[in-house]
């Protein structure tokens, strides 16, 4: 019937108007709903412009997601320890940090401290006294043992460090660096 059709059309139109009013309403932080078509259009149009700017211009045109920048950084590492090689084509050799670390070319360096150990050579010498290095006889010193916190590889001999203290002998750069009395 034509009357039923008109009623259904009015209900649909009212629903459509209700939907349009809901879409174009402007809300504030207090959740104040202003049922004003003009204010709602301005609000949604502003949102649409922001979305179009971000998606259309920043992402698509400028490819902002692919933007790169140059790296400015510095990495400084301090290497401690030693290495020991004994190959058929080379004599036994102790490698310390100065031997196996290639220094970077620096433009500016402030030296804050210096430990001078004159005339060091690779040889055998008694280890610096420490609870783990003090010995009474050769049985206390295991040959080939190396402690990364110590100065070299043990030879298996117990030697006089001083008149009162004996320590295990090591193959290392001798005389050993004594860094307990650092200059100020």
Automatic annotation (TrEMBL):
<keyword id="KW-0407">Ion channel</keyword>
<dbReference type="GO" id="GO:0098794">
    <property type="term" value="C:postsynapse"/>
</dbReference>
<protein>
    <submittedName>
        <fullName>Uncharacterized protein</fullName>
    </submittedName>
</protein>
<keyword id="KW-0813">Transport</keyword>
<dbReference type="Pfam" id="PF00864">
    <property type="entry name" value="P2X_receptor"/>
</dbReference>
<dbReference type="GO" id="GO:0004931">
    <property type="term" value="F:extracellularly ATP-gated monoatomic cation channel activity"/>
</dbReference>
<dbReference type="InterPro" id="IPR027309">
    <property type="entry name" value="P2X_extracellular_dom_sf"/>
</dbReference>
<keyword id="KW-0406">Ion transport</keyword>
<comment type="similarity">
    <text>Belongs to the P2X receptor family.</text>
</comment>
<keyword id="KW-1071">Ligand-gated ion channel</keyword>
<keyword id="KW-0472">Membrane</keyword>
<keyword id="KW-0812">Transmembrane</keyword>
<dbReference type="GO" id="GO:0001614">
    <property type="term" value="F:purinergic nucleotide receptor activity"/>
</dbReference>
<dbReference type="GO" id="GO:0012505">
    <property type="term" value="C:endomembrane system"/>
</dbReference>
<dbReference type="GO" id="GO:0005886">
    <property type="term" value="C:plasma membrane"/>
</dbReference>
<dbReference type="GO" id="GO:0033198">
    <property type="term" value="P:response to ATP"/>
</dbReference>
<dbReference type="InterPro" id="IPR059116">
    <property type="entry name" value="P2X_receptor"/>
</dbReference>
<feature type="transmembrane region" description="Helical">
    <location>
        <begin position="41"/>
        <end position="60"/>
    </location>
</feature>
<keyword id="KW-1133">Transmembrane helix</keyword>
<dbReference type="InterPro" id="IPR001429">
    <property type="entry name" value="P2X_purnocptor"/>
</dbReference>
């Amino acid at each position: 019937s034509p009357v039923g059709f008109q009623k259904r059309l009015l209900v649909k139109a009212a629903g459509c108007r209700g939907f349009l009013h809901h879409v174009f309403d402007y809300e504030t932080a207090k959740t104040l709903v202003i049922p004003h078509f003009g204010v709602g259009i301005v609000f949604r149009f502003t949102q649409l412009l922001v979305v179009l700017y971000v998606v259309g211009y920043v992402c698509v045109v400028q490819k902002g997601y692919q933007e790169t920048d140059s790296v400015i950084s510095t990495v400084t590492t301090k290497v401690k320890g030693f290495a020991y090689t004994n190959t058929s084509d080379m004599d036994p050799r102790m490698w310390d940090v100065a031997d196996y670390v290639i220094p970077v070319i620096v433009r500016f360096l402030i030296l804050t401290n210096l430990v001078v150990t004159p005339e060091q050579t690779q040889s055998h010498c008694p280890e610096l006294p420490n609870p783990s290095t003090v010995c009474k006889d050769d049985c206390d010193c295991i040959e080939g043992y190396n402690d990364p916190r110590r100065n070299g590889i043990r030879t298996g001999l117990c030697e006089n460090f001083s008149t009162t203290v004996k320590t295990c002998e090591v193959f290392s750069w001798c005389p050993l660096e004594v860094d307990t009395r650092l200059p100020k």
